[in-house]
From TrEMBL:
Residues 71-164 form the Methyltransferase type domain. Gene3D superfamilies: Vaccinia Virus protein VP39. GO terms for molecular function: S-adenosylmethionine-dependent methyltransferase activity. This is Methyltransferase type 11 domain-containing protein. PANTHER family: METHYLTRANSFERASE (PTHR43591), METHYLTRANSFERASE-LIKE PROTEIN 27 (PTHR43591:SF101). It comes from Champsocephalus gunnari.
Length: 228
């Protein structure tokens, strides 16, 4: 079926099929196969996370947006960079586990560098403390990226720089969100960063699970790395 004629039910079926993916290789295969239609599908879901995250960063960033270097983790096809570009940011480095997603991101022309990396399998392939802004949108959820990755995000950020993260607040993601927030608060207690904003959003995206209807809620977190 052509992407332009996909309905919500078509998109739901595709995403639910990914839940059957157990191994890392299966998950990567799913995203590789999804890359071509990803942007159209998330538009059907009315997926707002990229614009919400970009606006959150922009509202607090007081430096020169055009000179800022942004690390876009789990960048996918480049939806977050596209939104941040509209707000004046212009220098992006992207990381993703899917080569097909990276190909789409490369075609966008938004990124100065793109790197393939499986999140949670070791340090990120970038220099520590070198980014003004680090963003991860959509990947922090049950069955996707382990919570511990947030420590790597912090390490990549310059002292005084920002880390923006999102997750879902729906029923399927309750335990993951609780674990994530424990880690975020522990890192604050450890003196690594300070919380700038936590923004809860009700209409995050259209529900896809079989036991939810309408829209599911989500949350945007913004932290500022403290001076070393």
């Amino acid at each position: 079926m052509a992407a332009t004629t996909k309905t919500l039910e078509n998109v739901k079926a595709n995403i639910l099929s990914a839940h059957k993916s157990v191994t890392l290789a299966e998950k990567v295969d799913f995203y590789n196969s999804w890359a071509e239609n990803y942007d159209q599908d998330v538009a059907v879901l009315e997926y707002r996370a990229p614009s919400l995250a970009a606006n959150c960063v922009s509202s607090h960033f007081s430096g020169d947006c055009g000179a800022a270097v942004v690390l876009d983790v789990a960048c996918g096809t480049g939806l977050v960079a596209k939104q941040m570009k509209k707000l004046g940011f212009g220098h992006f480095v992207g990381i993703d586990g899917s080569e097909a997603m990276l190909d789409s991101a490369r075609e966008s022309g938004l990124y100065q560098d793109l790197k393939q990396c499986m999140l949670g399998e070791g340090p990120l392939p970038v220099q520590c403390g070198s980014f003004d802004v680090v963003v991860i949108v959509g990947a922090l959820s049950d069955g996707q990226v382990p919570v511990g990755v947030v420590r790597e995000l912090c390490k990549c950020t310059k002292p005084g720089g920002y880390v923006c993260m999102t997750t879902r607040r729906n029923q399927d993601n309750v335990e993951y969100k609780e674990a994530l927030e424990r880690e975020l608060k522990q890192m604050e207690a450890d003196g690594l960063w300070t919380c700038v904003e936590v923004s809860e959003v009700e209409d995050w995206e259209r529900a896809v699970s079989e036991h939810e209807d309408g829209y599911i809620p989500g949350v945007v977190y913004l932290y500022k790395r403290l001076q070393l």
